[in-house]
Design a protein that fits this description.
single chain, 88 residues, mainly alpha
Length: 88
């Protein structure tokens, strides 16, 4: 039973971190900040949030390496493609 309680605490902390990061990106947009560095920072936060979601809420931390890496590589490739689209 202790493992379940610890897992719930970790998931709650991750969820609160996701909310905090969402609020940070919202504030950046609300303040009207722009530029390549700001965009890259916001996108880095989005990639980090995607990694947190895949590891903790999709339960990929218990999956074999192939499944974990496929999701993370997909997030990284998506980030590269979007970066190239906006900087080209």
């Amino acid at each position: 039973m202790k493992i379940k309680k610890q897992s719930t605490i970790v998931e709650t902390v991750v969820f609160l971190l996701l909310i905090m990061l969402t609020l940070v990106t919202y504030q950046v947009g609300k303040m009207g900040l722009s530029g390549v560095n700001i965009s890259l920072g916001v996108f880095a936060i989005a990639l980090f949030k995607g990694a947190l979601i895949s590891e903790h809420f999709m339960q990929l931390k218990h999956a074999s390496g192939l499944w974990r890496w496929m999701i993370l590589i997909w997030l990284i490739l998506l980030g590269i493609v979007i970066y190239l689209a906006f900087t080209a």
